[in-house]
Design brief:
mainly beta; Porin; two-stranded antiparallel sheet; 10% helix; 52% strand; elongated
């Protein structure tokens, strides 16, 4: 989605075996993690608070506050819209989906007298990241054409032979050439051809461009957590998690002639793409919470990078109307035995470091008599550490070279940034009121003016009585990002500014066990 050109660096042309791009690294690591409705209402701040199964995914030491057990489940409904501005024109798209949030068990036990006051273990599912989105933008472009990326591929590979171009690049230039979006320049002979774009020749009058991208899926994580309470002063814990990443992107790009002329041999061209990415990963989270005095809690947690083994399945097609009475289409499936191309690779996310502080109102052993809390987290993530690598004992050299170029692009594109989460709760006997906010900082290096951030404002209510509890939360998200339909090395190109507004309604129901 966030496709960027990095100065002085051109990636090897994407083929069916290499559908990854720098945007994937950010997409799979720059997200707002899920939690129970209670924690989401408090801005997602959980690094030092404890007493909630969500601690398994933030700071497992927080499980050390459990003396008994809980079972919780969290259905959620997400809705919103994306406003996209491109070349002076603004469009709006809506999306909505039901998801399943934090669900699982935690068991605590202990005598409250020995050095180890209590211990707890948890087994929890969490929707760590949600990829559901729908954007569309359009505008009049007189600077560049999508087809110029094919001309750059032809030039980069010094292609002069029409037979080579027609068959050897089935995920790009071959489809454009076979549908006459790209054509030969008159006067050449096979083996000495030069090529041109039918649409790029019309830039003086402008090209109407439209890009629609629908994404779905997420990262669903199952984790086993453990923590101990040492003399009610120190809580230490850890968790082992297995995330499942599943992502689907369906894109449609259209480029059309805006004149009424019928003798320029170009009416429109359309590119359709489908990418599916699936795979499992592994990560470890470690943490500690220290209570320096009765009311205060200090937390520190480290999240290891997640090591994913992923598989991409990719297919694309191009349709071109050359105003000759025939609409031409060509499909990548025709070159791959009618099956999407498949590529397996490894992906490593950045590590995370989280520092946290909490102030608990009336901090006493009987948690039912506590009156609320204030809590805040500061999280550091270095997005440039994202990396891809070819899998297998003997990967082919082209894959190794591509991944190396891709990682260089990631290093130049992104940077480290801080994320902030804060919230609080007031408790009135069996009823609770909560407010929170979270800000996720700009991960871009700002090479081409890219900027992005995520801001969440949240609030919720809770009810607890006789071993039963229910929490209802609304999270209002305001996200700013960028999107490029294509990128070029030798010509100017434009991106769309994306402003997303989302709502997320969560309901957590739980029972003491």
């Amino acid at each position: 989605m966030k496709k960027i050109l990095f100065s002085g660096l051109t990636l090897i042309a994407i083929s069916g075996l290499h559908a990854q791009e720098p945007a994937d690294a950010l997409r799979f690591s720059w997200y707002v993690p899920g939690a129970t409705a209670r924690i989401q209402a408090a801005g997602g701040a959980m690094g030092s608070l404890g007493g909630d199964v969500s601690a398994t995914f933030v700071n497992p030491a927080g499980l050390g506050f459990y003396k008994t057990g809980d079972f919780v489940f969290t259905p959620a409904y997400r809705f919103g819209n994306a406003k996209s501005s491109y070349l002076g024109r603004t469009e709006k798209q809506n999306t909505s989906t039901f998801t399943w949030g934090t669900t699982g068990f935690v068991f605590g036990s202990g005598d409250g007298k020995s050095r180890i006051r209590s211990s707890a273990v948890s087994l929890v599912y969490n929707r760590t990241a949600d990829f559901n989105s729908n954007i569309m933008y359009r505008g009049m472009n007189n600077q560049s054409s999508y087809s110029q990326k094919f001309l750059e591929e032809i030039q980069r590979n010094n292609i002069k032979d029409g037979n080579v171009l027609a068959n050897d690049y089935p995920f790009g230039s071959s489809l454009a050439f076979n549908t006459y979006w790209i054509d030969t320049i008159g006067g050449g002979t096979n083996g000495n051809f030069n090529f041109q774009s039918r649409s790029a020749n019309l830039l003086s009058s402008g090209l109407l461009q439209q890009n629609t991208v629908e994404t779905s899926g997420g990262i669903d994580e199952i984790a086993l957590g453990f923590a101990e309470n040492i003399k009610d002063k120190w809580m230490i814990g850890g968790s082992i998690a297995v995330p499942y990443l599943h992502y689907k992107r369906v894109g449609e790009f259209i480029e059309a002639d805006t004149t009424s002329l019928t003798n320029n041999h170009f009416n429109y061209a359309q590119v359709d793409e489908t990418l599916r990415t699936k795979g499992f990963g592994f990560n470890v989270k470690l943490g500690a919470i220290y209570k320096p005095s009765e009311y205060w809690r200090l937390g520190l947690a480290i999240h290891s990078p997640t090591f994913f083994t992923l598989t991409d399945k990719y297919e694309t097609s191009i349709t071109t109307d050359t105003e000759r009475g025939t609409v031409y289409s060509d499909y990548s499936l025709d070159y791959t035995n009618n099956a999407p191309s498949e590529f397996k690779y490894d992906y490593l996310t950045p590590f995370k470091a989280i520092g946290s502080i909490s102030y608990v109102l009336r901090e006493i052993q009987d948690v039912t008599k506590q009156r609320g809390f204030l809590t805040a987290d500061v999280e550091y993530v270095n997005y440039k550490i994202n990396s891809f690598s070819a899998t297998g004992d003997n990967p082919d050299q082209s894959s190794v070279d591509y991944m190396g170029k891709l990682n260089e692009a990631i290093d130049r594109a992104y940077k480290g940034t801080f994320n902030f989460r804060a919230g609080g709760e007031l408790k009135f006997t069996t009823l609770m009121v909560r407010l929170g906010a979270a800000y996720y900082g700009n991960p871009y290096q700002n090479i081409q003016g890219e900027k992005g951030h995520k801001l969440n404002l949240s609030g919720g209510l809770g009810y607890r009585n006789k071993g039963f509890f229910v929490d209802l939360t609304y999270v209002h998200s305001m996200n700013k990002d960028v999107h490029f339909a294509y990128r070029l090395s030798n010509s100017p190109y434009s991106g769309a500014s994306i402003k997303e507004t989302r709502g997320n309604v969560l309901l957590t129901v739980g029972f003491k066990i």
